[in-house]
Amino acid sequence: MDLLLDRLLDILAKEKDLYERLLVALKNEKRAVVDSRLDSLNEATKEKENLLLKIRILEEQRSSNLARLAQRLGESPEDLTLTRLSQLLEEPYAAQVADASSEFSTLIQRIHDINKNNKALIQHSLELVRGSLTLLNDLVPSSPVYHKTGRLQAGSYSGKVLSGSI
User: Given 118, 144, 145, 165, which is the most exposed site by the fewest CB atoms within 10 A?
Assistant: First the structure.
């Protein structure tokens, strides 16, 4: 049992490190969006994808390990959370698992918050781009008419220019 618990704590430590790196990648993504740097945004996205793949692999290992622990403890694998596991264990494992559970809750909340902010920033940027495209489209004649010579007939423009200077 101690071997399973040591393995679980090792997996949790690796996962915590990956989640902290994911948090850094999300902060880099935010900076890239604010600075309008597409290359940095692409790098942050690739880093996130890489980290999420590694996290998924560790999650599978953690689930397998927890299933074996659940079997040894006579618990249902679906109901065995880190909090519940910490209640079933003796010291020093109980405290270590409880600490890991608390750290994960904090990290996941921080990731959720920054991800939500990044989503709002990206949506705002997209609205600005759409607004710019609409403005540019309104400056072009709505239905151009060409003369036999191929020249564009001077007509009314549908756009509005308020001022050429500030």
Answer: 165
